[in-house]
Amino acid sequence: MELSSLRVKNQPSTRREEVYQHLKHGIITCALPPGQVLYEGELAEHLGVSKTPIREALTQLQQEGLVKFLPRKGYLVTTLTLRDIQEIFEIRLILERAATVLAAESITDDEISKLEQYLTVNIDPNDKSTVYRYIQANKDFHIAIAEASRNRRLVEHLERVFNDAQRIQYMDLDTGEGPWAWHRDHERILDALRKHDKEAAALAVEKALAEAGARLLSL
Predict the structure, then answer these.
(1) What is the distance between the alpha carbons of residues 121 and 203, in angstroms, rounded to a whole number?
(2) Rounded to two decimals, what is the model's pTM?
(3) Which CATH superfamily is domain 82-217 in?
C-alpha cells in the first residue's frame, strides 16, 4: 500500500475529513490502484486511527462511486473501462458545455480573475505533490465556471462527475501532452468568457474534451 502514514490527532470531524481526503488522493493518483481491496483494520493500523473514521470515509467514497463494498471482505477500488471513460467524457461535454455557455452570459470580472489564478499553478513531473495540486487546480477551474453559471444543481452534478474525471486526468498527464494541452484549452475557454462569447466558449469546451478523449482512448 503506497500511502504515507497520517497519524492524525485532531477532533473526530477533522480526523474523518483527513482520512477521507487521504484515501481519495490515493485513489485519484492510483497509489490505491483500481481493483485493490481496502480493509478497514489494515487502513486503521496503517494510518494510526480507529476504524470509525476509516469506515465513514469509505462510506463517503462508496457514495461517490470510487469504491464498492464487498460483503465480509472490504472495499474494492472501482475500475475504469474504456466505456466508462467514454461515458465520463460524454457527460462532461453535456454539463460543461451548458455551464460554460451560461457562465459566458453572467460571469463577473472577479470570477474571471479567480479563473486566471488557477492557470498559474505549475506542474513538476518529478514532484508528485505538484501533480496532485495541478489536477485539483484543473477541477477548481471547471467548477468555478459552473458556479459562474448561477445553476447550483449543475455545479453539484459536475462535482460528482469529477470524482472519476480526476482519475482519468491523472492518466492524461502520463501521456506527456496533457499539461500543455490543458493550459492551451483553458486559455481558449477563458478568452471566450472574457468576451462573453457563448458560441466560442461552447466550441472551446467541445474541442478540449474531444482532444483529451482522443489522447486517452488511444493509450
Answers:
(1) 24
(2) 0.81
(3) GntR ligand-binding domain-like (1.20.120.530)
